[in-house]
Known about the structure:
heterodimer; A: alpha/beta; FAD/NAD(P)-binding domain; five-stranded parallel β-sheet; 19 strands; about 20% helix; about 20% strand; B: mainly alpha
Amino acid sequence: MAKDYDVVIVGSGASGGMAAYILCKAGVKCLMLEAGPMADLDRHKTLKAVYELPYRGFNKPGRFPHITQASEFDANMWIDEKANPYSYPENDPYYWVRIRMVGGKTLRWGRASWRLSNYEFKCKDHDGFGENWPVDLAELSPFYDRVEPIFKVSGRNEGWAQMPDGKLILDDSRDSTSIERFKAAAAKLGVPTSKPRRSTGTLASSVNLLLPEALATGNLTIVPNAIVREIGVDSNTGLVNAVHFLDRRSKREFSVPAKYLMLGASTLESTRLMLNSRSRIHPNGLANSSGVLGHYLFDQFYVKNTVVAIVPEARGGKGPRTLMGGAGYIPRFTNLKHTDLNFIRGYAYDFHSGGTPNAELIPAYGEQLVKQLADLQGAAFSMTTMGEGLPRYENKVSIHPALKDAWGIPCLHIEQKYTDNEFNMAKHAMETGAAAMEGAGFEVLAKHWEMVPPGESIHELGTCRMGADPKKSVLNKWNQAHDVKNLFVLDGSSFASGGAQNPTLTILALTMRASEYLIAQRKKGSV
Amino acid sequence: MKRRSALGSLIGVGVAAQTPPSSNAPRTEDNVKLDTSTHEAVADAKPKFFSEQQFKTLTRLCGAILPAVNGRPSANEAGVPEFLDFLLAESPTARQVLYSQGLDQLDVNARQLHNKAFASTNAAEAAEHLKPLTAKWTWAAPKDLLAKFLRDAKNDILRASMNSRAWAEASGGRRGAGVNTYWEVID
């Protein structure tokens, strides 16, 4: 018999976990439905040598055509692409990278934790493209202030408008001399440099940082292996009134009443679910009177190892111990003021000192290759570019007319292309990065500007964006659907723009804010 | 940094983390950990993909790309040709075609230039056919089939060598191999 919950939460990653964390501690009874299993980290994780694996670490060929991050060690962690298919235009591949497990992608995220700035929140005011967010940095800052300590974010505040300061564990570690040289060379080019900003700790997941406290209240019930198929609505009011789901293992169908629904199934899964929830009152998908649902898909394009260089003094292991090591970050520095560049917005870099260049970059084989690798051991200096992709109406997801997953649920067709703005930005990043390397006296071994396919950065955003105008957006400033007041969409689908910053910190802050808004509105009885 | 991890990092082998090979649970009388071996270490694998001539060509290529150096096993000592035969048998068609045509092309070129199979070439003769491996790296894969094959084969041969049991034994046993956290099948 269905139990009575105040809120149903779909998903258990960053957004679902934070919603439970806030709501349950405020006394709200929550049911969390997670499509994947609950991993027992003692039982499901063991240490193995790579030669013990049947494919010597290569992974089973063809198992993950789109998840380049998957290794043979963690293959069982990623989604089964055959059971969970999707489609894209023949010549425009989209790499949809998914994890279905309690904790979601917070079990594997890169942990980079940057705030968005008003260059993103008020992007249209700045350069005329796209739409502003209905929130700004001042409104979101109090929530960033609370999220950062929960996730133990370390870094350094610089006081730069494009890289807002945070409540950080101060990283005052000394830079290696190679990084000092690089920073000085970058400064001459007008390129700012800082420390990385990352969530710290052995595990930095909703599994250990959010869900335990929510469970401790006695107000949270987590149901793993619950694949939500459709959201039910009241045929008179159009409000959400039920959630229909299946047991992942048996495919047995269930329904649970829902007074409030908080969706945090991940950017594209939440939108897929809403598009699959058509009804007389919501004929184009749930909360889609604007027709915007599914549109304005974007992400951050990545150019991996944009520039790889050698620090000459480190060749042959001859450099002093203080020469190599460490990492840093370069925030967006282009188009902060009017410029004549051939693109708008900007990009960021991660840079690393140390390590050895990939063997494929070295034009040799045999003993010569081995000698060169030994000579270059620990002498590499590399940069990776993360660039802002623009939200465009034509980049979108829709429900495929025939394709269904292993549970009979219609699948997504995903269309996303990069344009000259992204291409020109990537070329600029390559040239600027190489100039900084050369300015530091490093030998550029390889440089390129070719980005990975859309989606591969795992920073897919948009498709259910927030905005001030209900005709141009799906959600209001509280992540609440304009059309369906008891529906909140919390994940990256709510983004109106994304900058070059990793999105998880903002997803957490937005969710905290939306959850507290819901609590306040429930008390008032106004939702 | 040990040489293995240095080389491993070069080829994108995600196994460089060297943590002690311990169980998560303490050993007790009821929780016995027995040493085991691997299939490859005790038996010959059944050939599945390459023709006899292709296999000979691949073996010669493996010897050229990674000979035994500084006490580390060569690619052939690491059983790389046999492993790649297995891997290619399960690979997508495009990969199979690349390897088959690449190996055949190497052999045809050697017969034309030296009147002998690539498998029989000496170091100087083989070098004439492996020149694409000395070209400057570009992000885009080479358009020439042989160059593209050699680039991919180089990476595969290095990776398969360093991820082998033989390499681990030469690097100090299990701890010298790439040891990492393995996610068991859930459910």
